[in-house]
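User: Sequence in, structure out. Go.
Assistant: Echoing your sequence, followed by the structure tokens.
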Amino acid sequence: MPLSALVLSYNSERDIGPCLESVAGFADEVFVVDSFSTDRTQEIARQYTSNVHLHQFENFAAQRNWGLDNLAIRHDWVLHLDADERLTPELLEEIRELFDRHPEGVDGFYIKRRFYFLGRWLRFGANYPMPEVRLFRKHLARVIDAGGREYLAIRGKVQTLRHDMIHENKRGLTAWITKANMMAEWEVEELLTGAGKRRLASATASEYVELKRSRWLREAIWHRVPMFVRPVLLFVLRYIIQLGFLDGAPGLAYAVLMHFWYPFLISAKYYEKARARRSAPLRAASARDLLHADAGAEAVTPPAVWIGHLTQQTLVERIRTALEWLGIRDLLRGKRSIFIKPNLTWPDPTPGVTTTPAFIEAAVLALRDYGVDITIGESDGGYHSYKAEEAFAAHGLYDLMTRYGIHVENLTKLPAVICRQEVDGREVTVELPRLLIEETDFFITMPVPKVHAMTGLSLGFKNQFGCIPSPMRLRYHPDFAHTIVAVNMLLRPRLALFDGTYFLDESGPMAGKAVAMNLLVAATDIGSGSRACAEIMGIDPWTVRHFVVARRVGLFADSLAGVRLNEPPSKFFSHRFTLERSLLSEFTRRMFRSRIGTRLVYDSALADPLHEALYILREFRPVKRLLYGDVGYTARRTMPPG
């Protein structure tokens, strides 16, 4: 058969023989990836195949992906098995007939599993048929780790085979409980960090066919149930409602262990770790952190703001001039890893909405002069509206990565840490990427000056809101002013390069009138840079709530009197910017200032249809005129619903 079998094993001497026996004379090649077994597993495996490879175990998904990526697999079709699984003769014959017909237009197959526990096939309690994609085209599949679970995501069409495979672990209850305890640790880590959820979100773009239903059930229903109530509900569901009691004593034992004890163990471990995290000292910053360099370095006093005109031909030159005037060499002394946060609030380059590709490239070219390692990053769009990778590609970041050796990171996919920060007497808890908290020496923000329907203005502070990795970050809006100040205190941006090629007027952040200003505003202090931009726009900064909060903690000055300026901002005032709130923006603003409204829009069953209806209405021309007046809409395409 033109088929490669890939089997995972660890201390599986009781199971590996029957597993390999079922495929050894069937698949052209059989690979075993063993996690350094200490029993006879490897010896038995070599009786069936010479392709026995050792690889240190991290998790099941990583082990399977390592096999797919590193073994000399010759065939396009791969069959995944665990050592305690085997194929039935009926299933073997069905696959043989399938390949005799050369399956076209199909990229993977679900295989149903008969699960045996304490010697009995469990037919009830949702234990059968439990189909999983185990036979697939190698180049279209990837195994995704999500805590104690793994998912095989496949791009393409998937069908279900008629016959079953057998899953029977003969290692006993002690081994089963040991494995369950290990998987519970993984589940708790997933609940605390959400890393697996982000990996799933990145893997399940529109072309993927698996995962969606199970993910929806877990996120929309299961995760909303109180943790210590879940085991009781799950046991009742599986053992009583889904007739698990018909499987006799083995069915009762499995229901108690898997559907009550295991989720209860996860809940208890989560409670233990979450309590420890709350009592442990978390990373906190003071307002002084934002204004000063790292401990031991001299403070940059006074704050400096450089303002000047630019053209496409002089972008690099003007940025270099501004950086030197600001004293960039002193600022970067001892710094190696630089993170740049552009404003990619829309997947396509849009004047006045996103940082222009030319400005990003010019900044990279200017900063490369100082021998730094540059990373550019952004998170996925709100409510999963677009992937950060779409914006990276459209704004030419992958091209910059190839030409200049920079790094590009989707912050939604990175490991995150929970940070706690006091702001104006209020404690704020927020999740931020570990990369920015622990691994970045120097943070540069690269915003676009714009009016903003939700916050009044979007300038130096607001741009860092996109560093919150969760696409559901608008849940922070009821406490937005304190949250965004906390984020900036934690990230400590040391330089702001405002892309003033266009400022956005009337109905920002994504709708409105792009005004060609052709300005560069560069600042060593984001509060001073933001205030300078507000003066250029003719807007009173004290109408912006988060500026008021920033002033209370020392991040936003009463005036620019103590700031070193190359030119006064008033010299560049040429157009008075005015926020024109639409019906939609006013509704949205009021909705997200309410905790109840935020939960309704993001956490209720109405969330998906509500967002989809808004996206459709937003592109319907008569409704656009009603919602936005005569402003027009700068976006180039409909934002897909989450």
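User: And one key feature?
Assistant: The radius of gyration is 28 Å.
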